[in-house]
Each structure stands twice: as C-alpha cells, then as structure tokens.
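Re-running Beta-barrel assembly machine subunit BamE to confirm reproducibility after the cluster update. Everything else is unchanged from the original entry.
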Amino acid sequence: MISLAINRLVLRRRFLLTLQCLIWAMVISGCSVFMAAKQPEKKDIDLLKEGVTRTQLISEFGAPVISEYKNGKRFEIFKFVQGYSTGTKAGRAFLHGAANVATLGLWELVGTPTEITFSGDDMAFQVQYDESDVVEEVVIIKKE
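Result of re-run:
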C-alpha cells in the first residue's frame, strides 16, 4: 500500500516536470523565428549612383540623417541597416521553427544568438546632388 502511494507520487512528479518542460519549451520557442521574420528589409544599394534622383533615394532609404548645403550643392548622409530578402527571412524563420519543434525548444539556445549576430549590416553613404537634386557623387562612409 505504501509503495503504491510512493509510485503514484513519483509518477505525478514526473508528469508535472514533463508538463513544465513542455510549457517552458512553448513559451521560449519562437524567439528566433520571430527575430528572423522581423529582420530588416534588403535595400537596393544599386540606386546609389550618378543620375538617380533624390526622391528615389528617399523612397528607398528613408529620410537622410543629415542634409546640408555646401558651396551651393546639397549634401546628404543616408544611414541604414542592409537586411535580407523576404525569401531569405522566411527560410530562416521556417528552419528555426522546425529546429525548435525537433529539439522541444532547445534550439533557442543557438537560434536566438544567431539571429542577434546576423541582424544586418550598418551602412552609411554621403550623396552630393546637382542643382536639380540628381545624384552627382556617392561616397561610402561605412559599409560592413
């Protein structure tokens, strides 16, 4: 009778421990999936060349961080994070999700730091325009 009660207690503890582990795995799983899906978009840096209009640059890279006139010419600096294509982001998210399921969430120990490390490259360019706001010159300030 006592051994039956001990067996039930052991089984109950194992069940609760297993249930806790599964809940924990569900709670933490998805961080790397979410991070992969929310990586920055890939910008078209081929636009950074002579002959492109200021409007085209702003529509692709957003507002410049600095805009000023020197010697009658407009100079602007664009800073952005070069991200990944939609297909690449979706593929990474899918692989993280599959790895999470296969390892019951333990993949997050690898997947989350991976997504933090591969979160895009910081870039900065200085652009000089002519009087019609068409690019005359592009200087790379930072390109990782």
